[in-house]
Amino acid sequence: MNVVIGSLKSIFDDALIAASTDEPVLILGETGTGKEVLARFIHQNSSRRDRIFIPINCAAIPANLLESELFGYKKGAFTGADKDKKGIFEEASGGTVFLDEIGELPIEAQVKILRAIEEKEIIPVGDTKPRQVDVRFIASTNVDLKAKVEKGEFRKDLYYRLSVFVYKLPPLRDRIFDLPEFVKYFIQSAGKSVKVDPSVMELFFCYPWPGNIRELRSVIIYSLAKSNGSDIKIEHLPDYLIHSCKHPEILRGKNAKEKLECFETYLISETLKEHPNPKEAANLLGLSLRTFYRKLKKYKINPNK
Q1: Looking at residue 55, what is its pLDDT?
Q2: What pLDDT is attached to residue 241?
Q3: Which of these, 91, 92, 67, 93, lies nearest to 81 by C-alpha position?
Q4: Average pLDDT of the residues of the chain
Q5: What sign does the CA torsion over 245, 250, 254, 258 have?
Q6: What are the φ/ψ torsions at residue 302 (nearest 5 degrees)?
Q7: Is the dihedral of CA 205, 210, 211, 212 positive or negative?
Q8: C-alpha closest to that of 25 among 88, 124, 97
């Protein structure tokens, strides 16, 4: 995704400040919210834009191979090490390393990563001589790192070293008004110019999108293939999505004004269920507190229920 939509714009605008430095960045957010997209945006707007960007899924590398993959190894360091091998950090020197799901790293590896950030050096497995590396680190996680720090599962010093710039990407359900723009963008990205039936958008607004933007993109790609060049209708959606919405009837048989009012009632009520604090709910919906309370009164919504 090379565009910035709606409520994401302020985050990406602020990320340009991080891009102008070489300091570490920590990106928080649920799976599928676009953490790697933001990491690449920072890299592409930095002085390292012409150098390599290497994403690493920390949860996907087996613990017994992690250090040799990241830091490399010397010949003879272990069975099968028949020659010296550079690690990812050394290969990425001059560029950016994106440590995705850094919360899954074992404590032993965290110590060495902290050294790479602070001292700009690594020690390959089986070696005793440090090697200099020039790497910009961007990390991400979908877990509560502060909670892991409190439990002793994540090093406090590494957490604060990574937290020079911190960005939290909201889930799609908390920026649902951006959804039409994402739908339009994914259709255009696929090289199509088809329209989306209003009933499809109504269902999209009802669905909670647990997979966030990544799930929406997959749904659009699937629907485009099934519609075979025609406009996207309900029957072109994945079956699980068609049967997912608990309240599609709120939008049926109504004019545009009534649909808007019904949707606002539904969206405000659902937001309050997850975020009972009116100020927080108003902020997530992009409304002033005064406007929020006015709508509560208009739609007869009790925020205490």
Answers
A1: 96
A2: 87
A3: 67
A4: 87
A5: negative
A6: -95, 110
A7: positive
A8: 97
Choice among 9-23, 137-151, 221-235, 287-301 with the minimum mean pLDDT: 287-301
Q: What value, to the nearest 5°, has the Cα angle with vertex 51 and ends 48 and 54?
A: 100
Looking at residue 242, its pLDDT comes to 81
Cβ atoms of residues 200 and 237 within 8 Å = yes
Alpha carbons 189 and 224: distance in angstroms, whole number: 12
Q: 246 pLDDT exceeds 70?
A: no
